[in-house]
Amino acid sequence: MNIRELASWCDDYLAVERFSDYCPNGLQVEAGEQVQVVVSGVTASLALIEAAIEREADVLLVHHGYFWKNEPAPLTGIKGRRVRALMRHGISLLAYHLPLDAHPEVGNNAGLGRALGFHGAPLEEGSLVWGATLDQPLEGATLADQVAAALGREPLRLGPERPIRRIAWCTGAAQGALIEAAEAGFDAFISGEVSEQTYHLAHELGVLYLAAGHHATETFGVRGLGEVLAERFGLRHYYVELDNPV
Length: 246
Description:
The chain is of the alpha/beta class and 246 residues long.
């Protein structure tokens, strides 16, 4: 398949035009024309590029790509080495950030909800925060155990211990959305990262906060999109998991 046709299909499938993002979504590095092998992973690090080279990839599909707002533009240092490795080996880079968080089927929030067994939906149209109401209330420790079992790591738990009936979540670095979750009446909120102020906010807002890992909560999108591309276009797809404790 032609790389530009593949990128165009992904752009439409993820509705990238709806998002004002911190980086360009779509084809970030064009290093070849034809695509047979897709390697996916969370972040376009040098280690992931090397894994793509080993698998003779034509495309590397990631959630965290390059060219973020307010970062230096020159292709020097780390960024230069990464792009040079892609170009040398003919590996194009497809990157989707917020569109891959929000997608109702393959998105990170949808995937995290499924992994935890929650039947959730965005709080409102266009919101990146999802929520669900449970049939039976959970204790904080039980919820933490569910998160650990689904993601393979123990979450950091902050805030009051109380029965949880309504749970909200947003993958990645969405700890600031704790306030939105509290205002919407949720008992617990799950995201990836945590800030110093999150401890105080959780206690003062009366909402249990679980920091489950930025990387761990955002493996679902690229893996899901890669599987869709493989099935729809007959491509070979490999998801590569690189351990990241953050």
